[in-house]
Design goal:
Blueprint: E1 19-20, E2 23-24, H1 26-29, H2 42-48, E3 51-56, H3 63-66, E4 74-79, H4 86-102, E5 113-119, H5 131-138, H6 153-165, E6 175-181, E7 188-196
Parallel strand pairs: 3-4, 3-5, 5-6
Antiparallel strand pairs: 1-2, 6-7
Bound molecules: zinc ion.
C-alpha cells in the first residue's frame, strides 16, 4: 500500500498528478473547509470543545461519521486500534499543555467527555501473530501483550477506559465511555457506559 515510501518517488498524497480514487489530489486540497470560511481562533475553539474521541485510524470508522460529530465539537485522536498507548498518552499530555498555553479551559468549564471508540474486524487483530511489533507499539513485554486484548474489541475498550481512569492529570469530573462499532451492522455498542473519570472524593475521616 505504501510502496512508494522511501523510494525515489514522492509519497502519493503529495503528488498532485496522482489520482486518488479517480480524483486528483488537488480536488481535496483546493476545496474550502466544509465548516465554511470562518473557523474560530484556537482559544475560542477550546471553549466550544465537548469531547475528546480516541478512535482507530481505519477508514471505515471515522468518528465524525460513526458518531455524527459536528465541526469543532471534538478533538479526534486516531491510531491503529484506537488504543491507549504511550504515544497516545503523550498526545493527550501535549493537548492539555496547549490548552494551558492558550490560556483557555477546554470545554469552557463544562465537563468534557472522553470517548474510546473501537470496532470489530479491526486491522490490529491481524497483527496478533506479530507480538514483537505489538509489544513495541504498546511498549510492553511480549508476555504482557495478553493484557491488551488486541483480538477482542470489547475487552480492549474496557481495558483502555480503565487506563484513562488512572491518569491523575485528567480531571476526575470529566466523563469517559467505551464504545465498539460493529462494522457489519454499523451499530455502536456502549460497552463502558459514560461515567465520571473518578468518583467525587469523599472527605477524609476526621482525626
Ligand atoms: Zn481498527
Amino acid at each position: 500500500m505504501w510502496g512508494n515510501v522511501g523510494t525515489d518517488r514522492p509519497f502519493p498524497a503529495c503528488d498532485s498528478e496522482n489520482p486518488v480514487n479517480g480524483r486528483s489530489v488537488t480536488a481535496f486540497s483546493s476545496r474550502p473547509s466544509a465548516a465554511g470560511a470562518f473557523l474560530p481562533s484556537l482559544p475560542q475553539a477550546l471553549r466550544n470543545l465537548r469531547a475528546i474521541i480516541i478512535g482507530c485510524a481505519d477508514m471505515r470508522v471515522d468518528p465524525a461519521h460513526v458518531l455524527g460529530i459536528k465541526s469543532g465539537e471534538a478533538v479526534v485522536i486516531r491510531n491503529i486500534g484506537g488504543r491507549i498507548t504511550p504515544g497516545l498518552l503523550e498526545q493527550l499530555a501535549l493537548l492539555g499543555r496547549i490548552g494551558e498555553v492558550a490560556g483557555e479551559v477546554a470545554g469552557g468549564g463544562e465537563e468534557l467527555h472522553i470517548v474510546v471508540l473501537h470496532h470489530t474486524d479491526c486491522g490490529i487483530t491481524r497483527l496478533a501473530g506479530d507480538p514483537a511489533l505489538l509489544a513495541r507499539y504498546f511498549q510492553v513485554s511480549e508476555g504482557e501483550l495478553r493484557t491488551k486484548a488486541v483480538t477482542d474489541p470489547r475487552a480492549a475498550v474496557a481495558i483502555d477506559v480503565a487506563l484513562l481512569r488512572e491518569i491523575p492529570a485528567l480531571p476526575g469530573e470529566w466523563f469517559v465511555s467505551g464504545l465498539v462499532c460493529d462494522v457489519k451492522t454499523g451499530v455502536v455498542d456502549i460497552v463502558v457506559p459514560p461515567a465520571r473519570i473518578r468518583r467525587a472524593q469523599t472527605t477524609g475521616s476526621a482525626g
